[in-house]
Design brief:
With 264 residues, this protein is of the alpha/beta class. It is built from 9 helices and 10 strands. It has helices at residues 34-42, 58-63, 83-102, 120-128, 145-153, 172-178, 194-204, 228-231, 255-258; strands spanning 19-23, 45-51, 71-77, 107-111, 137-140, 164-168, 184-188, 210-214, 223-225, 240-245. The longest helix is centred in the middle third of the chain and has 20 residues, at 83-102. The protein is elongated, with a radius of gyration of 21 Å. The termini are far apart.
């Protein structure tokens, strides 16, 4: 990764031949960072990923107000739990990006949320590193679903000595174990598990301590509730995030706290 000055300047423009993985946040165009907007507007090529099962790139919809005359490539990817197939698909994209870079074109790949958190960018970055010179790959953080849903709930994610854990909801046995390891648990991709998750929370006495948001900050689609049982009867969608407040840990007093060293 690079540490040069142009990456740390929010008003910087995309540099010829360089690649940028840019987080565009949860859905609202005004939640992009200034750096993200400037790179999108100055890049030669914008790659907007979309699932092969859909015809619309949500990342493209988010950045639409900032598009000018850039070349837009909507990259369909296999949304399957098959690592070999996934790596092959993103390897082909990496070859295309490397070839465009050698032509002197600057490339931005936009991704929902943050590029390094359950993102397609993670696969692409791994494929690009052997193909790019040192310092030509850049990551621009974006507002994550975790931050967005917490803001909608108005409750703190962590305080004092609280432990915060983030995971997917695919394995509810692991979710149940996590209750003993943290004070706040954030679950991504829980739309298909809401019925089972609701039952688990009821057994654990946590049903009233959970906040769910689906398609957070996406105009006309956002759905928020604290009743997971009722939500399971509807169609919450893939982009569903739950925050479960297990408890509070508080400050732990140590011997050092009780007997601080004297000031000189």
């Amino acid at each position: 990764m690079t540490t040069d000055n142009h990456q740390t300047n929010a008003m910087a423009k995309a540099v010829a031949g360089h690649f940028y993985a840019v987080g565009v946040g949860p859905g609202a165009p005004d939640l992009l960072t200034l750096r993200a907007v400037n790179l999108i507007q100055s890049a030669d090529i914008i790659i907007t990923p979309r699932s092969a099962q859909t015809e619309v790139s949500m990342a493209r919809q988010i950045i639409e107000p900032y598009l000018q005359n850039q070349e837009i490539i909507e990259q369909a990817y296999p949304m399957e739990r098959n690592l070999d197939k996934t790596l092959r698909a993103w390897g082909q994209v990496a070859e295309m990006i490397a070839e465009r870079s050698q032509r002197g074109q600057s490339i931005v790949q936009t991704t929902l949320g943050d590029p390094l958190l359950y993102s397609t960018s993670c696969y692409l970055l791994d494929q690009l590193r052997p193909r790019f010179p040192e310092g030509w790959i850049h990551v621009v953080p974006g507002i994550s679903a975790m931050q967005t849903v917490a803001a909608l709930s108005g409750d703190s994610l962590a305080l004092q000595e609280d432990r915060l854990m983030l995971m997917t909801a695919h394995d509810l046995n692991e979710v149940e174990k996590a209750f003993t390891c943290c004070e706040t648990l954030v679950l991504y991709k829980c739309g298909k598990k809401l019925g089972e998750l609701a039952a688990l929370l009821e057994r654990q006495g946590l049903a009233n301590q959970t906040f769910l948001a689906c398609y957070a900050e996406q105009e006309g689609k956002q759905f928020i509730t604290q009743d997971l049982r009722a939500a399971a009867d509807g169609k919450p969608g893939y982009l569903a995030t739950a925050i479960i407040h297990v408890g509070r840990r508080g400050w732990k007093t140590t011997n050092l706290d009780k007997n601080p060293e004297p000031k000189l």
